[in-house]
Amino acid sequence: MFFNRRKQILLAAFFGLAAFLGPSPRVAAQISPGPLSKPHQSLSGVAQCTTCHKVGTGGALKCLDCHTEINKRLTASQGFHALVVKKDNPNKDCARCHSEHNGEEFKLIRWDPSQEKFDHSKAGYKLEGKHAAIKCQQCHNAAFIQPEFKQIIKQKDLNRSFIGLSPACLACHKDFHQGQFKKECASCHNTSDWKDVTRFNHTNTRYPLTGEHIKVTCAKCHKVAEAGQSAKYTGIPFATCSACHADPHKGAFKKDCASCHVAAGWKQLSTAGLSSQFDHSKTNFPLLGLHAKVDCAKCHHSGDFKAKIPFALCSDCHKPDPHEGQFAKRKSGDKCESCHTAEGWKPAKFTVQDHATSAYPLDGAHAKVECAKCHIPAGKATKFKIKFALCTNCHQDAHGGQFTAAPILNKCESCHSLKTFAPSSFTLAKHKQTKFPLVGAHIAVSCTDCHVAKKKNDKTSVAFHFSDMTCTACHQDPHRGQFKEFMVKKRADGRAPGCEVCHNQADWKDLTKFDHDQTAYPLVGAHKAVSCIQCHKPPNLEVNLRNVSFKEAPKTCEGCHQDPHAKQFARKGAAPACDQCHKVAKWKPSTFDHEKTPFSLKGAHERVKCVACHKNVREVDAKQVLFYLPTPKECAACHGPTVTK
């Protein structure tokens, strides 16, 4: 498919030598890259080389000088070639796909559309809808090639060409509307379904569709005059209703239909039109509010507009009583206007101030509650006489019956107010009267941290009574039961201390309450000043005592302390007995009794420092260690030889 490097070198050499020697058949035969393919056979021979190649430029190509149909597409940046050909040197790019001098039978175009799945979007026209299912030849044939391309396409059989088509619908499809529309077909239609014209917006025409006209099918107005012709879409009269509709009044009214009727519906009359013919305000019943929108036939049932209609009470027309006589005993009687207006049945004009005259004034948050929240339908009528002595008459018990017993007796006002249900008015002072007074750090804990729902998303399951009030009922035991024997041991008041055997509610990290003397390892001497974490070491370099195994702490000196004497006092593999020389109260000075050794320090030696005699220092594990043995016992070893006169 592409020029190989050898052929490029030969071409360059050929044109350089040809320019120097002039045309020579012998030279051409020796350096020709190879015979041309059949489509280019007319260009064979040395004399024809300059038709495709530029002299003196190393054989630069001039493909587009001949293939003007491709050049035209590249110039317009259209089609597949515009995507794959580089614009800086398009002639050179041709050879990447269409290689020459490969022999007479070599195919310049090696592509069979029937065997490959071509991405048509790369040609500048994406195949969508029904276009995606048709065969290439249905569009790519001589019948649809534009005239200006037919003259310049080099392919003799135009049915085999893939260029020269227009993306316009009418380039392939017949104009179904016979020139009535000047816009592109895609403004109304789509490639998936020709009959789907939802893209067309009648509002943009001279006759926008409103009211009932929106529901009318296109064919009702746009009819086909003769078989084989398109429906008529232009030149349809629409100035008056009678252009399409017959006059049902047979000329009784000389005005246009729109003076009384509206497009929303024939029976829905225009208020403006009616007022111009009949002024209802001059009667004993002016039409106010929603009454002005009522259809005449709703009240004038017989069509006799002169017949008298009772209207003293709302119930004369509006039956039955929607409240089923619940307000019949009121001072105002059964007059709807005491709560309602002609402007609308809802909302009622019975205000919060009016409610204050009832047996249940609306206070706090109740003043903002919608009427329908309390006065709910009961059968066909809304119930207005309701119970209200207890909050639970209207509200569900939010605590699931936990406060039904004394002393609360389900009186919500003991902890809540009408202003707001939350936060509760149950104060710390009240909490001190419970079995679990809040002290220390518990004072700062949010209520919801302890009082949580037992069931997910169920507020009624929030627990307020606890049978177990020990620390581990709420808090996880970080020590995993290591101190259980101390926690369950009851105190003088009969209660088990739990975590308080070590901790207190003011500060969890305050461990001063723990008595280490009650353990198998009482702390004495300097050990009393040591922090817990120095002996009870947590794993993985943690900085707290959460994961410490307290019972595994060593009880011997060598378990915590490194032997500074490099095991020189260990006997028979056993650990050195540090307590023979040192005390837990203080490491220095040593309590070592030199009199128990073979070298007594009686006399002046008692005042000599240890380091004056013990000077044997060795390096052990990169540390300098003083070794006490062997130490010389002879006088001369320390004092030098005795001088005699």
Helices and strands in order:
Elements: H1 5-21, H2 25-31, H3 49-52, E1 53-54, E2 60-61, H4 63-66, H5 68-75, H6 81-84, H7 90-94, H8 136-139, H9 147-150, H10 218-221, E3 261-262, E4 265-269, H11 271-275, H12 296-299, H13 352-355, H14 371-374, E5 377-378, E6 381-382, H15 428-431, H16 447-450, H17 471-474, H18 484-487, H19 532-535, H20 557-560, H21 610-613, E7 616-620, E8 623-627, H22 635-639
Antiparallel strand pairs: 1-2, 3-4, 5-6, 7-8
Q: Short description, anyone?
A:
This protein has 645 residues and is mostly helical.
Q: What proportion of the residues is helical, as a percent range?
A: 10-25%
Mean pLDDT score, rounded?
A: 84
Q: What fraction of residues sit in β-strands?
A: under 5%
What string, H for helix and E for strand, traces the elements in order? Answer: HHHEEHHHHHHHEEHHHHEEHHHHHHHEEH
Number of beta strands: 8
Structural class: mainly alpha
Tally of helical segments: 22
Low-confidence stretches: 1-30
Overall shape: flat
**Mind telling me the C-alpha Rg?**
54 Å
Largest sheet: 2 strands, antiparallel
Distance between the termini: 120 Å
